[in-house]
Amino acid sequence: MKTSSLFQRLKALYAGLSAERRKQVLIAGAVAVVSVAALATADAQQRGPGGAFERSQPFGSRPKVITQPGQFDYYVMALSWSPSYCASLQRDGYDPQCHRRDGKRYSFVLHGLWPQFERGWPQDCPTADRGFVPRQVANQMLDIMPSDKLVFHEYRKHGTCSGLGVDGYFKLSRDLFERVKVPEALRNVSDPRLFVSPQEIVQDFLKLNPEMKPDGIFVECGTPGPRLKEVRICFDKEGKFRSCGRNESQNRLCSASRIYVPPVRDASGGGQAPQKSTPGTGQRI
User: How confident is the model at residue 4 (pLDDT cuts 50, 70, 90)?
Assistant: First the structure.
């Protein structure tokens, strides 16, 4: 049936209705319009602030959305265990974090400060500086982010979404890094056979940082081992400790009951774990 013919028939039927019946039809139509609008709103709420749809992701991954700088819910600060990172390099691989001429070895270094949504996260946000980090700014961060490539990458991918600009982003990054007190047992590990549970690491951090939330810190492990890879800590946009959103899951980041902690003196490579176990599956760069 053609649309015009159907419209004419509906029009004739409406004209034959009583005044009361017409009123009922108009009310029903209004309800239908409201219902459609509600469905559209629900659809929009599944999209990020910038309008990009948060598609369903395989288990263990996080939905990504595109947004504007400053539009996010909280931060995750990732503290990377440098000995594990350095041991993961290929035999002929080079990284200034792992091959310093002065022989310095690192324990925890700042991997990055990542703006997050309660579910999902923004990245590569459009900014006037186009993600550019001046050399002077990069040099000022090398004591806690010991690779200029890491500094450049983290600002371009994550810092641009903070809305703070390059100087403000790295200032906040340093402030939060220096605010967190690291347990003595993890400051200068020398024991080549040190195994701990992720829960022990969490509890040690909580004891030294009483304002930290029990559900605001998570441990990530990786291969081989499994071994300590990162500790992730959540902050609100003002830099106060807070609970993490749905992006962080201890079971996903590290489900092992015990993990190997490579010694700091072995940061330049090697350091195979004394025994094998099931690694965690957390991923993030």
Answer: low
Location of structure tokens 């459609």: 36
Question: Is the pLDDT confidence value at 255 over 80?
Answer: yes
User: Is 64-266 assigned to CATH 3.30.70.270?
Assistant: no
pTM value is 0.71
Note whether 104 and 275 are within 8 A (CB). no
> What are 130-140's pLDDT values in tens digits?
999 999 999 99
Which residues have a catalytic role annotated?
Answer: 111, 154, 158
Q: CB of 146 within 8 A of CB of 105? A: no
Domains of the chain, by residue range, sit at 3-45, 64-266
